[in-house]
Amino acid sequence: MTKERRIPSSRLGRFSQLGRLAGGMVGGMVTEGARQLARGNRPAIGDMLLTPANARRLADRLSEMRGAAMKMGQLLSMDSGQILPPQLSEILMRLREDAHRMPLGQVAQVLDDSLGKQWKEAFERFDFTPIAAASIGQVHRATLKDGREVAIKLQYPGIERSIDSDIRNVGMLLKLSGILPDGIDLDPLLEEARQQLHHEADYEHEAKLLRRFHTLLEQDQRYIVPGVIDELSSRRVLTMDFLHGKPIETIENLESARRNHAARHLTELAFREVFDWGLVQTDPNFANYLYEHENGRIQLLDFGAAREHDQQQRADMRMLLNACMHNRDELILDAAARVGYLGNDDPPGYAGSVLLLLRTATQPLRATGPFRFGSSELAREMGDQVRQMRLESRYSRMPPMHILFLHRKLGGLYLLLSRLRATVDIAELARPYLDTPESPASGTAA
Fold it and tell me: pTM of the entire structure?
């Protein structure tokens, strides 16, 4: 964990943090400009602004503020990392796991406000040092009076009511600063961050999603989902069973059979989420998966970013899956239009770019036998194609929100399978969702 810092909870306090950030970055720009001029150089404005020191200022201030400010940095790093200046992308990537934590007094105040001052009576032990910290809240470990170990997610004070203003202020700062390259349409990312934050800030809603996943998987011994402790949960506190698994990355040096076994289960779960349940956990963070080395079970965490897909959306996505499997241009383009990738006002050549991206993303589906993710450049190829679509073609149709979240799900899965150097027969796992040869890509089944 990093150093302790009180989270600003008032709108004025959070706005003043951004003001300090802007002033510090301008001061850094002036200093860098003077240094370059003294050396006889004529630096561009962007070069003076985007110094390593200013990038660190941006990351540190967003980390202190948490909430919408930090989430915006995460989204920029994760979703636009292929087109951000390398030094900014590298610094922002720290926001995925590097954050300040609340001081003890602020932790106690959150518990008092959410569970009442008698909350201490429920615990035999409560560890005030968090075991994890993120953009919305931090997680503590504790033991109940009956001996059960639990994980308690506490929401940072003032986060929920500051979401909209934080998004506006951070967006304005990034747009006016010139720190982003020309061609990036920031508005869709701002709106995505706003909607996702409101969704994730309601812990009662996350508890409902957690119970749904628990019910869906309780008969499947390959997966473990923590149960919710209702009497110690509220809108801003979520108490769950503590899971003792190890980070999923710890299996990357195990024998190939165990790595491939886990990778197959992760991939099958993704298919079931999208096509069987219409309920998808879309956060690609590796920390959301733990592994039980004793029996090979996968433990699943953090369902705040889970998204629902209605029957028509699932049918359209199944149609696209079938079209990509058959690898026929007219079927892929028709399905892509149904899903929302294409429209009547698209410029010439844009459909070809979408076609290439979809074919690249579904290469494992058409592989002859198991696909070797460890030796594949699939993630890099997809990133290169997205960059070309967004910048070189000077046009980017933003797919519907549920598709953007599926992009994140698929990208995160590919990165994890690559990290595990897994070999997985994707076509075999997709078979239950593929149409018969007599009726290719009919898309009639939900």
Answer: 0.79
